[in-house]
């Protein structure tokens, strides 16, 4: 499967979090009534049954039960996946420490990674969960992994050491290469018996993605849709309680932490962003990671027991330039001036309501990450691009632009103009584009906003079919900071005839760092043998980003998840709880607290 993990992560995230334009509750109340009626039907079980209730926009007809594929599998793009398909470990993004789940631990022996399972694990069908499950799952992932990824693509061979342990051999080890292995979701050897053993043999014979043997295997694998999901976690699917409106997960007596969780069932209602908000307002849902509109955020305030759970954001939205379409943007003074015209704080408020954070450091990293690798004194030296229209005017005039009768003209006398594209249906992108349009027009730069279809903005961005685009910056894919610069510099910047993207030259001249090869620095930040060398590369890229501003960060995602306490759940984790800095879709600390018995039902 040749897909871009960064693109897929953002694509999946946005498909879950598309915002509607702000509408009042009354305007959509009638439309949502049918949803509420369908979702709040008679509960299963007795009155004594304790339930944790969530919501997700699943599709039982379109989605499969091939959970090893994950993308397109039932509930596997939701936070609830951890409840039935555990990862080997979860990562604490604040402390940078591992919390092992199915795994007992891992260690390096030269270029060999030794990964060991906890003893006594079982699948929901009562069979043992052991090294055979682990090694076959790893082998399938090696075959699926594109060569430009990190972790599984670098695995050269696999060996079962004993009933609980597997050795993964590498040629070139570098810090954190094991991250994807530890976070991998092991699947049942019985469910995948037609694929796992074949994959293991192919991997150890040197077959990789794109080879003929892989193509034959993969053609079967992507069509595979087992009858049921064999679960490793504390809950499993109740096939009798799967409908278009709701899915019920029941206790998996054989599962990991089954004797620790305190809720008998987990119910997941079907609902998109608007429908999920209505369910929260009706008290039907305890916890939602869907994206509410600004109006819905206000309506939540009247729900008894409501409060926000804030999940840290490691990416945001801003504007991406096409340097080939608009050569005037190659002048850094112009880029900075365009940034100084904009009020990112206001744009974020309009686009996301409360669910955004302002950008403080403009380092190309989320502020929370920049503050990890720089001191406060170092960050004080960074240029701040908060709105300053006098400075914008000064920069444009210095760049040879002229202002006449309220309009800006380029050095060659042509009137300055830009088209800014958002994405239809992505309310936060639409609202960001229209605000950029309004601000630049008011400043005297002719600007028109339009929205491209939501089915493939990635193709449009990659092909360079834009002048200025509302686009992500930073990266929520993993807590390795280099991912932000891979996003900022390399994504949509292939430089090929078919995929020119931004057409941004990665060999730059930095005022403080001199000549810099940004592509080389991204690779160094990924693969350097020492954390010191990685850190130096990261710092250099952050400084260069701040000095040259190749794209403009406007706001950062702040994932505000509504929770309701006192109805079914006694209390949710507090702001400073362990894991509170975790990314919500990868290492969700609320779901981990549920698994560990730290969420209690109301008595």
Q: Strands across the major sheet, in which order?
A: 13-21-12-18-16-17
**Envelope shape:** globular
Outline the biggest β-sheet. Answer: 6 strands, mixed
**How many structural domains does the protein architecture include?**
3
The helix tally amounts to: 20
* CATH class identity of the largest domain: Alpha Beta
Report the CATH architecture of the largest domain: Roll
Broad structural category: alpha+beta
Radius of gyration: 25 Å
Percent of sequence in beta strands: 15-25%
Count of extended strands: 22
Topology:
Elements: H1 5-17, H2 25-39, E1 51-56, H3 81-84, E2 89-92, E3 97-100, E4 103-109, E5 112-117, H4 131-144, E6 155-160, E7 165-170, H5 179-182, H6 196-204, H7 212-221, E8 235-242, E9 246-251, E10 265-270, H8 273-281, H9 294-300, E11 306-311, E12 315-321, H10 332-341, H11 344-352, E13 356-358, H12 367-373, H13 376-380, H14 389-398, E14 402-404, E15 407-409, E16 417-423, H15 427-443, E17 446-452, H16 457-463, E18 468-474, H17 482-490, E19 507-510, E20 514-517, H18 518-527, H19 531-548, E21 551-557, E22 559-564, H20 589-595
Parallel strand pairs: 1-10, 16-17, 16-18
Antiparallel strand pairs: 2-3, 4-5, 5-7, 6-7, 8-9, 9-10, 11-22, 12-18, 12-21, 13-21, 14-15, 19-20
Helix pairs in contact: 2-8, 4-6, 8-9, 10-14, 11-15, 17-18, 18-19
């Amino acid at each position: 499967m040749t897909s871009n993990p960064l693109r897929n992560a953002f694509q999946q995230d946005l498909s879950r979090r598309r915002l509607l334009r702000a509408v009042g509750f009354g305007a959509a109340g009638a439309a949502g009534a049918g949803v509420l009626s369908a979702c709040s039907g008679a509960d299963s079980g007795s009155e004594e049954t304790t339930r944790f209730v969530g919501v997700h926009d699943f599709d039982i007809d379109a989605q499969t039960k091939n959970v090893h594929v994950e993308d397109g599998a039932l509930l596997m793009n939701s936070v609830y996946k951890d409840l039935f398909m555990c990862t080997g470990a979860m990562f604490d993004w604040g402390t940078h420490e591992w919390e092992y789940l199915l795994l007992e631990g891992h260690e390096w022996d030269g270029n060999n990674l030794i990964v060991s399972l906890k003893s006594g694990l079982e699948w929901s069908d009562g069979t043992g969960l052991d090294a055979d499950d682990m090694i076959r799952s790893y082998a399938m992932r090696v075959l699926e992994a594109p060569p430009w990824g990190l972790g599984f693509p670098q695995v050269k061979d696999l060996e079962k050491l004993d009933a609980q342990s597997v050795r993964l051999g590498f040629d070139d080890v570098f810090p954190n290469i094991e991250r994807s292995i530890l976070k991998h979701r092991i699947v049942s050897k019985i469910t995948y018996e037609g694929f796992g053993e074949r994959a293991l043999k192919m991997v150890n014979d040197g077959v990789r993605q794109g080879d003929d043997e892989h193509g034959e295997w993969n053609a079967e694998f992507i069509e595979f849709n087992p009858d049921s999901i064999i679960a490793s976690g504390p809950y499993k699917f109740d096939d009798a309680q799967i409908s278009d409106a709701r899915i019920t997960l029941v206790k998996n007596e054989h599962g990991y932490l089954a004797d620790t969780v305190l809720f008998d069932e987990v119910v997941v209602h079907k609902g998109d962003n608007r429908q999920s908000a209505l369910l929260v307002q009706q008290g039907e849902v305890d916890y939602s990671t869907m994206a509410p509109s600004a109006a819905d955020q206000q309506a939540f305030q009247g729900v008894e027991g409501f409060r926000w759970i804030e999940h840290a954001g490691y990416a945001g939205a801003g504007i991406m330039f096409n340097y080939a379409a608009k050569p005037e943007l190659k002048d850094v003074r112009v880029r900075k001036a365009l940034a100084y015209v904009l009020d990112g704080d206001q744009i974020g408020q309009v686009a996301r309501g409360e669910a955004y954070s302002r950008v403080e450091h403009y380092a190309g990293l989320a502020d929370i990450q920049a503050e990890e690798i720089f001191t406060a004194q170092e960050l004080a030296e960074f240029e701040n691009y908060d709105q300053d229209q006098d400075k914008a005017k000064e920069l444009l005039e210095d760049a040879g632009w002229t202002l006449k009768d309220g309009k800006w003209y380029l050095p060659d006398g042509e009137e300055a103009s830009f088209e800014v594209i958002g994405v239809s249906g992505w309310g936060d992108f639409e609202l960001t584009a229209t605000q950029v349009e309004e601000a630049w027009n008011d400043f005297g730069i002719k600007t028109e906003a339009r929205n491209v279809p939501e089915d493939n903005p990635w193709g449009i961005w990659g092909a360079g079919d834009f002048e200025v685009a509302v686009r992500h910056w930073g990266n929520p894919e993993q807590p390795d900071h280099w991912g932000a610069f891979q996003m900022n510099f390399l994504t949509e910047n292939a430089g090929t005839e078919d995929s020119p993207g931004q057409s941004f030259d990665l060999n730059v001249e930095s005022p403080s760092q001199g000549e810099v090869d940004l592509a080389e620095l991204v690779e160094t930040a990924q693969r350097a043998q020492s954390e010191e060398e990685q850190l130096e590369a990261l710092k250099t890229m952050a400084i260069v980003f701040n000095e040259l501003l190749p794209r403009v960060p406007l706001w950062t995602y702040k994932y505000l998840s509504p929770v309701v306490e006192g109805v079914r759940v006694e209390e949710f984790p507090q702001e400073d709880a362990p894991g509170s800095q975790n990314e919500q879709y990868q290492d969700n600390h609320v779901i981990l607290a549920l698994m560990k018995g730290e969420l209690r039902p109301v008595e």
